Amino acid sequence: MVYLENTDSILDMDATGLAEKIRNSEITSLEATNTYIEHLQKINPQLNCLVEERFEEARKEAREADRLLQAGNAAGRLWGVPISMKDSFDVAGMRTTGGLMHRRDLVQEKDAQVVASLKKEGAIILGKTNTPILCFYQETDSKLHGRCNNPWDVNRTTGGSSGGEGALIAAGGAAVGLGSDIGGSIRFPSHFNGVIGFRSGNGQVSDQGSFPHVGIALQDRMLGIGAMAKSVRDAQLINDIIAHTQPEERNLEEFTLVIPEQALGYPIDEATATALKAVRDYLQSTFPVVDEQPPYFRQSSVLWQRIMSIEGAYAYGQIAFNHRPVHPLQEYLKEKCFKSSELHHYFTWVLVGANLTKPSQKALHRTQHTIDQGDKQIAEYFDRRLLVMPVYHTPAPPHGQVIKEVFSLTMSFKKYLPFIAYVNTWGLPSLTVPIAENAAGLPIGLQITSRVGNEDAIFQLGQILERNFRGYKRAVI
Known about the structure:
three-stranded mixed beta sheet, 41% helix
């Protein structure tokens, strides 16, 4: 196939704009679908972002979408729009592998709830994207699917666990995608790949059909689901479609912005510091800005780590070891020494750490008490406040560095994970917006956070930053 004349414009369009073009018959759904398919076939050998495709089915659905549109029977907000889907969400007729060899032929019969909601609005799924094993670490690499590469520099990480989504959307592989986040899994890839990312707050989006099922209340509250996108308006649209309730309108002028700079308390590199200062300088001419840490900021990394280590993450081990005895250290050494394990050594290393840091019942009781107290204080604090802070201390590092920093036996996560862990620990909605680039052209994102119920204010501020700073730019492969 040859590229269509308006390929670049389709690849650069967000889902909202493309949906409007399709509704107005300026672009057909089939034209858009073919354009994305051709582009994915071009970029995927370098990026390894797409791990399963349904191209022929997507073309068939696009033809039907065009036919129904011409007949006046199209009403969905994403009618005929090609999208991508993180591997962890069930799609009928497709595999949900979790990056595991023993699940590579396991075809799902039913859509996840979020998938069904997007399909109901007319979205067409092109394929599923790369994740680490069981979405359990922040580097997208597994023995089943291999390593996903950053489109801005293939020698650098995409982050994880929604790394395939981040890379694919950054390179213009779909109009919009969907990710999930229990430990930065939307925000790491959004920041590292230069895309918009929104993770919903505690209990706002159904996780039915998301694999693996969390099943532990303290962990479940930390999971958020949302868009990996080219625009803030798309992130808001996807949230409107998949969230249980629509956020109430907020008057942004009533909000104070919390932008820790001197009070940040953790190291960030010069380019990230410059981006944060530029945003602060710009916003303080319009909004009241305070330089302080929000409640429980310093405790949150330890709380997150303790919660994720409940029962030594044994349930994840049971799934990964597939009815074999769960011996992560032996399996780690087997892979490192002989390359003979079906499990990537990143996964078994993280599982070893979870075993070593498994909290006692007494520690869990203290944690639950802290969470109960903190929820009330944080809800009050963020009633009319928005927090703007980095996602990570640097732009995308080389492959393998993030896992060394986040899962080191020296407990360096206390230094490198506070910006990520704060949001997950307290179940807060968070929007990541690309703000700048470093000298090597690597994107730098900042995240906007508040309490559940203030999503509208988050999106409003995100659009201001999107308009006045970097925003989304497509990485040309």
